[in-house]
Request: fold
Amino acid sequence: MIPFSPPRIDDRTVKAVEEALRSGWITTGPRTKEFERRLAAYCGVDRVIALNSWTNACELVLRWFGIGPGDEVIVPAYTYCATANIVMHVGAKPVLVDVLDDFTMDPEAVRRAITHRTKCIMPVDIGGLPARVPEIMRIAEECSPLFTPAVNLRVAGSNPQMRLGRALVMSDAAHSFGARIGDKAVGAQADITGFSFHAVKNLTTAEGGALAFNLPAPFDHEELYSYFNTMSLHGQSKDALAKTQPGAWRYDVAFPGWKCNMTDLQASIGLVELDRYDNDTLVRRRAICERYDKAFAADGRFIIPTFRDEKRTSSYHLYMLRVREASEAQRDAIITAIAQREVSVNVHFIPLPLLSFYKGQGYQMSDHPNTFAQYSREISLPVYYDLTDAQVDEVVAALKAAVDEVMGAA
Reply:
């Protein structure tokens, strides 16, 4: 059986975790702080904070910005539920917009959706391809006259909504660590960018996430880092590492925060993965995707994914193939036929309006026709470091045979 996306765990990974265990630092410590410094350097930003998941990291952002009941957050209808779930967690309303043919948020749909209630826009990078974040940033600026900040909000002595003066753009880059927009790594475009280091991601820490801060003046990134660090530790003013300094045991609690720090065990894995990311991991993932392209590009039954255009370069996280003429039912039948040939594939994602909870909230799939058009014929193929060329060819053969079986031979 060819699996879909197992993590890369080798002797180097095991040794790094063992060294962390033997060091005595298994919570947030020196490895986490080093991981944050190296992530910031990689993304080209002043500060990154590493946390326990994309979900908790990005929810902290919404809470810091003071988003709550009566507010709206614009998200694409085509995304994993976490993007909208965190909006529900803070009591705000997700406003869904349609996507383009490359699966990413339609900037003009964002423009049409902005109201005086809009406090945040969350573009989502899909399959490793960045959303059109610079365009969305421009739209947020152009629509700033509509922005109505909460006047009584106070966070660490200031009102971040009034300081920014427009909707916050928080990029969901769970799929796209290492991708690029122009000549800059993802992380240096939106106000704040959230990464995921979940087990299936290109760069994993088993579970984990991070925030890259890129807010304009007068925001101070050191102050932001300190505040988010405190938020992630129940509002406690010192983390475990800071309290190890001589006589530094005393701490304060500034506010009732949350608990979502990253541990040194996680960071030890991340440091290994980051060290070999550009020159090894991305090289192999790109080669796998190019081999798939070669197999499918000339076959009119298929639409291959976009990995590069004049402004964006993917991180090659997923190979999101579409079967051009397939209905949703036929796509599902093709997946079953592939599984019978001992190959694991997936679908990214079930659109939010098709999920029971969001359907129950009144969201309708008919409002987002292109989202459904892309989803209904999409099949994600295996892409992972240890996948061999021979296995790629097995996947191709299984998929083409399954399409022949369900839809008739080419």
